[in-house]
Design goal:
alpha+beta, globular
Length: about 210
Amino acid sequence: MNDDLFKPIPQRGSRAETSENRRIYEIADELHRRCLLYEAQLRNGQDTLSHFEVEQRVAEQYAKDHSLWLPISNIFDLGVPGPSGNENDTYVSHDIIYKVNNLLNSGSILKLLEKVAMHNDLFYDTAYRFYAFTGFDGRTVMPVLQQYLVKNAIPATPIEIETYMAALSFQKVNSEGRFINDSYEVWDLVPRNVLKDADGDLYVIDAEIRSINK
């Protein structure tokens, strides 16, 4: 595991790090610490587990230790089922959309939390909050994130997305929905992931992001 994974991401301009990002770092650092301890115990025993399996077990125990475990049988308590995509099942309750992430894109809870922190740094108008872990006891564990719902919105056009990202000092690269600056590469910024409200303001609700300084 990369010991540098959870160093705080520099905030854009003079904007201070959000309290939610501090919470995400704290959760990620604790999961990382517990994974290292778990793997050390495995080396001294007979069991063999992959990093992903260790992470799943550690996350479930952490969630139960901190009252952050949502049994999968209670998932509909989150709200009314919304549209689902490749990575998320969604549930809507009033002004909040809950996203149950299956880790298909990130492949790791820790990598997903890192991506969420980067999203919050870049697109703070659609910042994520960590809500809970859900899943099946002793098997699958999935993070549950929440985000403010962008109401009465339509998909932005590719030109609108390019203009918006240019205002954030990103340059488009030779791929649809892919942009880069000195610190980040952001992709999958296609109309389904960028919404425009009635006032013409754009909101990035989902994106793939990586730091290019690592």
